[in-house]
Each structure stands twice: as C-alpha cells, then as structure tokens.
Write a structure and sequence with these properties.
Length: 608
C-alpha cells in the first residue's frame, strides 16, 4: 500500500495498475514478498535451535533494534553479543520462502557454533566494546580480514563436522552469496574447503587454515601472531589478505560496537586482558583435535579410544525443568541433558559375563511356553481339533444337536513391553569392590546379562548411562537405543562405559522417560541402578532438594505410563529412597557383587 500511495502521487493510473498487479513492477514486488522469510515468524524456533545447540541462554532479536548508523557503516547482516543473536527482520536471498527459512536456520546454527566452539562472541561487549579491539591489540587492525577468514573457517569446519546435515544447505548459501557478490571471491575456496574437509590449494589459504587449528579464537590470534613473525609466511599472507575491512553475510560481525558490560560469574570465557598484555602466550603442549592437521579425514585404521563417545563433539541439548520442593515450584528449562553415543570397545569381563548370561537365558526360556497358547472350541479357525471333531460326529449320529466348534487357532501372547536400564556412571562407580572389580564393571556385567535374556525373550529394551557436572552439563550416555540391534557393536559399546563425574539423577530420569515414551508399547519400565545418592555441583547437601526432584521426575514419568524402579546400595538411606521412589519401588542390595544375579530375577518379578 505504501508503494501504491507513492505511485498515486505521481500517476493515479500507474497506482491502479500496480494494485491490480497488471504492471511488471507489481508482479516482481509480490514475488519478493511471497518468497521472503520473516524473523517474527521464525524467531521462536530459532531460539530453541540456538539453545539446544550451545546449551546456554540464547536470544534472537531484530537487527533493527541496534544503532542504524553503525549497521549502515559496517554493512552488518547479523551480530552477536554474549547472549543475543541479532538477525535481519526479513531474508530474501533465495527465490523460495522455504530456502530463506533454511537460511535463517543455518546462520543461527553458525552463530550458536560461535558460542559452542569459543569464537569471539564470548568477548563481544564484555571486555571490549567489539571483539575487533581484542584483535587489534594482538595482531593489529591490518589483519582484520585474515582473522575473520580464519575464524569463519574454524567455526564452519567444526559445525560441519559435528552437524553434517548442514553441509548441503550451507553449500547453497555459499554459492548464492557468491553469485550475489556478497561473498569475497578470494575467500570462497577457503569456506568450501571447510565444508568439504579438504585442504585448499592456495598457499595463503593453507596458512589461514593452519592458523585456524586452535580450540578457541584466542588460540587463532596467537597462531596468526606467530605466523606473522615468519617473513615468508607474512609475505604470502600480506599478498592475499588485503587490509580492507569486510563482513561475511552469514557470519557474526565482530567489529560491530556495543556497550561493554560485566559478565555473570558463571560465564566460561578466556582471559582476554592477559592476551592483550601478552599476545605471545605459550601454546599448550597438547593441541585439541581441530581443523589444523595435514589430513582432516580420519583414516579407516585410526585407533578409537575405548569409552570415547561418538558424539562428544556433537552435543545437542535437551532442556528439562527441575523441581524445588522447598519453594513448591519448577525451575523452567533448568537442566541441559546432552546425549552421547558410545564407541564400542573390547573388555576382559565379557567371558565371565557370558556364564551368567547362559543361566539367565535358561531362566527366561521358561517364560516362552506361556507366550504361545491355542484358542479352542471355535466355529472357524486355522486347524481342526481331531478329538472335538469326533465328539461332534458322535453327537450328531446320536441325534443331539451340537454346534460346529471343533476348530482351533494359535494365540500368541505378546509381551507389549519396553524397558530402559539406566546405569549410574558417576565418579563413585570407579571404586573397587571386594574381588577387584569396580562398581561400573558390575553394572555393565549385570546390564549385559539382562540384555541377553531380553534379546532372547524378544522384549524391546535400551541401555543408558548418566553422569554430569552441574545443571548445564548433565550427560546421558547411549549404549543401546531402542532402534539398535543387540549385536557385537552394541555389546562392546556397553563394555566401553566409563565412570565420569556427578549424579544428576532427576534430569536423567526425565530424559529416559522421554525416550521410553517414544517406544510405542503399552507397558513401559525404567530400571535405575545407582551406588549412591544424587549429588551434583550445585546441589545443597544440607537439603533433600535432589531427592524430591527425583521423586517429581518419577511422578512425571508415571503420567506417561512409565513405571520406575531403583536398585541401590546402602549408600542411600531408607528414608531417602522412600522419598525418591515411593510405594516401595526400590530394592537395597548389600553389595554390588549381588547385582548381576539380582537384576535379572527382579526383572522377571516386575514384568510377570
């Protein structure tokens, strides 16, 4: 309408044609409106996406809320501060609305990756009004372009390696931005190599790639600073990365100025003031696995560390409320649970567990005759019961009227059941029991024995573990999911279980309940095995906050049709277990040495 009003002032006839969509300008304008994506329609989903990926407070705001003069001066398309991502109100890069919505998602993934992989967003607006000040203090303003190229490569490479599903969409974005001349052509090969995990051919880009081999942006600055001391490397870099400032349309603008503020004490960030004073700080001896090696492809024969989780670098978060009994309220989205799939590993305990497993399979075999029966005395069926047929013929010949009910058919009694076994993998499970085995070893042995029986019985089952350190780092280990086969890989994944940190039990029970609720069975059972009471970094040991939260988590699962049962040692007091698992939904064993024998018998009792 605004365009029509402007046209009307010039020519009423042209304005009428515009409103009737008879003019070419009107048709182009309508197409642009219908194809664009709006931030207001997508912001809620983008917030959830960002929070899930980086596991922290994450806000999405309109870029227009920032200073318009700064936006024009810098040509900023998106900017980040410690907690906020500022995006344009509309995106119209592609011709289809779905592709423009994907553009919003991809730049949100990249912005979240800046937090996840410790890029300059952690300092922006805190120690410095812009991260460019930090860069200038260490390598000088002339290397703005080089630093941004290195960080864009490092973050994009890490994001693609951890979230490989973004590669195709990002490839489209790179091609489209190059076609629109918004992506510098000299940087295009570097970013493509980040997507593909290949080594660029251009010497300057190779140096940039090597400089991006650190674990955070401070290391990138130190690597660049070290390279610039080499005359040959400096000459190559100076010839390729010209001093001109620029921004990438899909990457946060680290030059955009904001007012510095004081970060909250819980923020995990680098000491940037130390870097400013001493930019040549010594590199750490052990460099983390990053983009800076000669070969980005992991060789087929690469050694996999037993117990190393397959998704350690790709930790997508699930947020759960936590209950405060004292205040009688939930802390909303208080805990972040990270799923981690575990690599297979060999174990010496396997043979000994197989002895128990054979015994359990024999016990479980006794259930099988009860699962198959015959329905008799039917008017129609699959088979004829000879005895009933003869009785029918005799009665007919004797003149008695008898209904034809000599058919029968098999009736399979299916166990419509799914069970999840949740193992405590906290640090205390590393303690040795009499006989030399650790608690975690006995848990694995018991889980393996039960799993052998469940597999033979045909029950759906999953094997999980839990640990963590603080409410933002609750870890949920997946040894076998419901959709996984029980084979050598999942068996070895279970044997690879290792003890970790603390015991954030409530969050783990909620997440196990969520996964059980997706199993699609009538009956659902969650069995928790723990050697001690719930304890984590931010629990108050003087209260029973954790115990009441576990009880509330179990209550939430009951509403989903999930029964919870706990097997605990005497570390948990009786009164505390009665709080956490009321109605005697627990059993206390004197020693974890009894666990492999007790667990399978208990399962039969719970599911008969």
């Amino acid at each position: 309408m605004e365009n029509a009003q402007i046209l009307f002032q010039r020519s009423p006839k042209a304005a009428l044609g515009f409103l009737e969509l008879k003019t070419k300008t009107a048709r182009i304008y309508i197409r642009s409106i219908s194809s664009q994506a709006r931030l207001s329609d997508n912001s809620a989903k983008l917030v959830l996406l960002g929070r899930s990926l980086c596991g922290r407070e994450f806000k999405v705001s309109d870029l227009g809320s920032l200073d318009s003069d700064d936006i024009i001066e810098h040509g900023t398309f998106l900017a980040t501060t410690l907690y906020s991502l500022f995006l344009p109100a509309r995106v119209n890069v592609f011709k289809k609305a779905s592709e423009n919505r994907a553009y919003y998602r991809m730049i949100t993934v990249l912005a979240a990756s800046c937090y996840l992989f410790k890029s300059f967003s952690l300092s922006h607006g805190l120690d410095f009004s812009s991260s460019a000040e930090c860069m200038s203090a260490s390598i000088g303003i002339n290397y703005h372009r080089l630093f941004l190229a290195c960080e864009a490569y490092r973050v994009l490479f890490s994001a693609c390696r951890n979230f490989p599903g973004i590669k195709n969409d990002f490839n489209k974005i790179l091609q489209e931005e190059k076609r629109n001349s918004r992506l510098p052509p000299d940087l295009y090969p570097l970013l493509v190599s980040a997507l593909q995990g290949t080594r660029p051919k251009e010497p300057a880009l190779r140096l940039a790639r090597d400089a991006a081999g650190g674990s955070d942006f401070v290391q990138t600055l130190m690597n660049i600073s070290a390279m610039l001391k080499d005359e040959k490397a400096k000459k190559i870099l100076d010839g390729y990365f010209r001093p001109a400032a620029f921004t990438l349309p899909f990457f946060p603008d680290f030059t955009f100025p904001v007012n510095p503020g004081t970060p909250p004490p819980s923020v995990n960030r680098m000491d940037l003031r130390d870097l400013q004073k001493n930019p040549e700080k010594e590199k750490p001896e052990a460099e983390p696995e990053t983009a800076g090696g000669e070969n980005n492809e992991e060789p087929d024969n690469a050694e996999k560390i037993p117990g190393k989780d397959i998704s350690e670098k790709c930790s997508v978060g699930y947020f759960y409320d936590e209950w405060n009994e004292h205040e009688k309220e939930y802390y909303e989205k208080w805990c972040r649970v990270t799923e981690k799939k575990i690599f297979p590993a060999d174990s010496e305990l396997y043979r000994e567990a197989c002895i128990y497993a054979a015994w359990v399979r024999r016990v479980f075999e006794r259930l099988k005759p009860d699962l198959s029966r015959k329905e008799k005395y039917l008017a129609n069926g699959d088979n004829i019961n000879i005895d009933e047929l003869l009785r029918f013929i005799v009665q007919q010949k004797s003149g008695e009227t008898e209904q034809e009910k000599f058919y029968e058919k098999p009736r399979i009694k299916k166990r419509d059941l799914a069970v999840s076994l949740l193992l405590d993998a906290s640090g205390s499970t590393g303690e040795e029991c009499p006989g030399g085995k650790r608690v975690i070893d006995l848990e694995k042995e018991a889980a393996f024995v039960l799993a052998e029986g469940l597999h033979d019985l045909g029950d759906k089952f999953s094997l999980y573990g839990f640990s963590g350190s603080g409410r933002e780092h609750a870890e949920f280990y997946i040894y076998k999911d419901f959709q996984d086969e029980w084979n050598s890989d999942t068996q070895k994944a279970l044997w690879a279980a290792q003890c970790a940190s603390s015991t954030r039990m409530g969050a783990a029970i909620r997440h196990a309940g969520y996964k059980l609720s997706q199993a699609g069975t009538r009956k659902k059972l969650l069995i928790i095995i723990t050697d001690g009471k719930p304890m984590d970094a931010d629990y108050d040991p003087q209260t029973r906050y954790a115990q009441f939260d576990v009880a509330r988590a179990g209550e939430e699962n009951r509403r989903l049709g999930i029964d919870s049962f706990c097997i605990s040692t005497e570390e948990n007091k009786l009164e505390e277990l009665e709080i956490m698992f009321p109605l005697q939904k627990f059993v206390i064993i004197k020693s974890m040495l009894d666990l492999p024998r007790v667990l399978s018998l208990l399962y039969l009792k719970l599911t008969r």
